[in-house]
Design brief:
The protein is α+β, with helices and mostly antiparallel strands. The protein has one domain: Cytidine Deaminase, domain 2, CATH 3.40.140. It contains three helices and seven strands. The longest helix is centred in the N-terminal third of the chain and has 14 residues. The N terminus and C terminus are likely disordered.
């Protein structure tokens, strides 16, 4: 039997598993490619193209919500979340990785209490970070695109 045919990772029985299980199981306390892929796979494959957001708080706990194909928020207040927000990650399953007008309003609202924001699109992610000096805006950065998918995805 060819071992290359099988993907390694957690075995999940999707019939009895919450939609956010893959994200929770992949969280190991730091943002890496596997964690970003779990968020992307949940958004695109498990939820069929709905936006997903993950907030990592000051305790390194994660708070997850899902939305529509073009918008996501918390339907209820995330109980227990501690400031500052270490990172706000969300998906754009419909296409490119960019910060929309709504995203910029969210960032501008939370900027005193948020360190980074990441948006995932096809096949890249874009990161925005407080305290990174660039010509864009003093104190905040709009980092270039970074690939997070292992293979290119056609838009």
């Amino acid at each position: 039997m060819d071992d290359d045919l099988f993907v390694t990772g957690p075995i999940i029985d999707w019939d009895d598993t919450p939609w956010d299980a893959l994200i929770r199981q992949s969280w190991e306390g730091e943002i890496d490619n596997d964690f970003l892929m779990a968020i992307w796979d949940t958004s695109e494959s498990i939820l069929g193209g709905l936006e997903v957001q993950v907030v990592i708080d000051a305790k390194n706990d994660i708070y997850i919500s899902k939305g529509t194909p073009s918008f996501v928020d918390f339907q209820t207040e995330p109980v227990g979340m501690r400031l500052p927000i270490e990172c706000w990650i969300h998906t754009h399953p419909f296409g490119a990785a960019y910060f929309s007008g709504t995203d910029w309003r969210t960032i501008n609202t939370w900027k005193p209490n948020m360190k980074t924001a990441i948006v995932l699109g096809k096949p890249y992610c874009r990161m925005w970070e407080r305290g990174y000096q660039t010509e864009v805006e003093s104190g905040w950065a709009y980092h270039p695109l970074h690939p997070f998918l292992e293979e290119s995805v056609e838009e």
